[in-house]
Amino acid sequence: MHSFGNSLPGCVSTAEGEGCMSFEERVVRALGKQRADRVRAAARQLMTLADHDAQSTQAVVHINVPLHAHNAHEATTELANLLNAAAPDETWTFVTISHPDGTWTGKASPFMQDTSRLGSRDWIAHFALSDLHMRLAAWRLTQLWRAAELAEQTVESLGCWRLLVAAACSRSLLEGAAALTHETTLLHQAWDTFKQAGPPTTASLTQFSADLNNRLAKLQYASRVGQSSGRPPVLQSTNVMTYINKLAKNTTTVDVLDLYEWLCDAVHPSFGSATTYTVLRASDRPKTHAIEQYARHPLQPLAASGYAVQPTVAHAAADALVLAAEVVHNSLSLVKWTMDDIGLTAEIQSLNRLPYAGSSDQPPQRSDPCPCGSGRKYKRCVHRWGQPGTPPPAAEQ
């Protein structure tokens, strides 16, 4: 008769705030040293990014105000009267917009700086793109926070050999990374095309900002809650397998579908879940029967057996985290670049009195280092209408 110890591997931390970034020897042996080093480094990278970035932000959505006016003068007067009646003590910046069908609308903000030298098209650009700038900043941060939290919990669970939790967190992280890289590419391509077309018109600005704000709204608020009861949400989220398949198609370093299938199998009541408690499978010499050994806390007996059963779920969780961390890092860098390019091209990064991640107190001066991090002076960088919306190569100042 065999007996197994019930001790759990301890979660050891070697630095304050680092969490379970240090694995005990049994965990390192189960994962393999190279895999253990990679997964800890990947998680640490995401956690460090999140710790060093903004810890909060805010966003404003400026809503179109329908007007009864028939010309520019009437529209300006009507909107001014509405604002004065609603908030007479507030300082408003506003713009009125005519539409092809002859109607007029307005947008107003108590947050924008009063810069009366700007023309109407500039103001339309500011209203159209400032909302997008703030929402991109919020979306980027929430994606970073989510990835860092899931990565931290995956590594902590691996360190404590709670493989079901590790698999669930790593699976969610991989799904998020797959969605993030696809949607980031689409957002960036849309901005690149719009920017290269040159100085925008009122109509193109209105359409572009509406399209991208709608896409961001779907990324932030889409759901599948209620679908099974016949009450589908207004914004329905994309099936996650669409994103996973696209990531698999574009990844050559690992088998994304195999990793994902193992993680799904682990969190479902199926074979993958059962393997997380399996210590040993062995048959006797005359082949009359086989012995299977299970343990609630399997790491100690698994080590004692010489790791006779490969911890496939643990390996999948670790490898998925490493891949997801790389994808998230690259995608968020592109989001940051796109956000900075929008802000600098439209000159809105210092326009709002409302502080948010990605805003600045003052616009850059011509000879200042460009805030985008290209290494160029601002006057020599690419933040101009008609220029590509892609990051420039590093250049000498």
UniProtKB/TrEMBL annotation:
Pfam family, one: SEC-C
InterPro entries: SEC_C_motif (IPR004027)
Domain of life of the source: Bacteria
Name of protein: SEC-C domain-containing protein
Taxonomic classification: Bacteria, Bacillati, Actinomycetota, Actinomycetes, Kitasatosporales
